[in-house]
Amino acid sequence: MSRLSAVLGSDFVYRFRRDPIAIVAFAVTAAFMLAALLAPVLSPMNPHDPAQLDIMNSEIPPVWQSGGDPAFLLGTDDQGRDMLSAILYGLRISITIGIFAVMVQMALGIVIGLMSGYLGGKVDAFFMRLADIQLAMSTLMLAIVALAVFKAAFGAELFSDMAIIMLVLVIGIAEWPQYARTIRASVLAERKKEYVDAARVIGLSAPTIMRRHILPNTLSPLLVISTVQVANAIISEAALSFLGLGMPVTMPSLGSLISAGFAYIFSGSWWITTIPSIVLIVLILSINLLGDWLRDVLNPRLYKG
């Protein structure tokens, strides 16, 4: 109980309570995360099950529009799929890909950043030039090339089965330089301090020094980067799915739903693409606002609370 009281009374929580934008952003992000987690419970139907689809229910408008059906609060798409269910499951897929892609980015970035900053010399030069080359090409371009090659080489069926894994790996590998450069900069400052020299004197190996002593002192910027990178990964997944190189129509993410409804937006069925687009925008905005607040709070020179 005393530990909980200490957390609630901390400066971090105090600043959070004083910032209404941070509170709203956190509440919206948490609501989306919870809705994604509870998608099977909250959804009126399983949009991934073809047996539950009825083509006779296709393109029913939302309940507040003329012709709407109370059984489909947000309407249906061209396949008769309930839009509320599709959005909840799509949200689940998009957030899952975003989180796991950031985990891949973080793992690669931390290892490469620690090695570059601590070892220096040719190791540092090699990884930083590799990072420069990768940063010169956009994440979307690299992902399009990699996914298109995989789809052409192994076929659309295998690509659909491995879509989530491929998206996580491609987006994760394409974005590691963000973490590596940040960790490297922190390591360059930390490796000259007395506690690192003391660790060397007592005979600790370089991997042990990097893992136990330097890494814990470089983690605070990673929290901010990770928050922003989750939003970027979700955007990248949505863009790839919109282009037909992401999730298949049988397991749609938010990007797939937007892409599937785009052909109907001018025919009057605006909700098929508009509602998933609004959900995606609100999700990305709330995550970015939360990341901006974390950046300001964790950097005393920027915080104006």
TrEMBL record:
- Give GO cellular component annotations, separated by semicolons: plasma membrane
Identify the keywords attached in UniProt to this record, alphabetized: Cell membrane, Membrane, Transmembrane, Transmembrane helix, Transport
Has UniProt tagged this entry with the keyword Transport? yes
Family matches, as CDD domains: TM_PBP2 (cd06261)
Q: Which GO terms describe its biological process?
A: transmembrane transport
PROSITE patterns from the xrefs?
A: ABC_TM1
Q: Where is the ABC transmembrane type-1 domain?
A: 91-291
Tell me if tRNA processing is a UniProt keyword of this record.
no
Q: What Pfam families does UniProt report for this protein, alphabetically?
A: BPD_transp_1 (PF00528), OppC_N (PF12911)
Membrane-crossing residues?
Answer: 21-42, 93-121, 133-152, 158-176, 263-291
Membrane topology (UniProt): Multi-pass membrane protein
Q: Where is the protein localized? A: Cell membrane
Principal location listed in the UniProt entry: membrane
Q: State the Gene3D superfamilies in the record.
A: MetI-like
Query: What family does the Swiss-Prot or TrEMBL record give for this protein?
Result: Belongs to the binding-protein-dependent transport system permease family.
List the protein's name. Answer: ABC transporter permease
Q: Which organism is it from?
A: Roseospira marina
Q: What lineage does UniProt assign to this protein's organism? A: Bacteria, Pseudomonadati, Pseudomonadota, Alphaproteobacteria, Rhodospirillales
